[in-house]
Design brief:
InterPro entries: DNA-bd_dom_put_sf, HTH_17, SinI_DNA-bd
Strand order of the largest sheet: 1-3-2
Protein name: DNA binding domain-containing protein, excisionase family
Structural class: alpha+beta
Domain Helix-turn-helix: 5-49
Number of domains: 1
CATH architecture: Orthogonal Bundle
Order of helices and strands: EHHEEH
Helix content: 40-55%
GO molecular function: DNA binding
Number of strands: 3
């Protein structure tokens, strides 16, 4: 992951899930995002943290 931040579509693609599933992760506070203007972006570190948390819960 060389990108500092990802778009919602890029993050969903990296996780191999739909945009709907990604937004559910955001709504449930399992995935942290930032807003810059009207854009919602996913920090690459937040994506890694989310994966780590999901693995621990599984």
């Amino acid at each position: 992951m060389n990108d500092l931040v990802l778009t919602v579509d890029e993050a969903a693609e990296r996780l191999r899930v739909s945009r709907w599933t990604l937004y559910n992760l955001i709504r449930s506070n399992q995935l942290q995002t930032i807003k810059i203007g009207r854009r919602r972006l996913v920090p690459a570190t937040a994506l890694a943290d989310c994966i780590k948390t999901l693995v621990e819960v599984a």
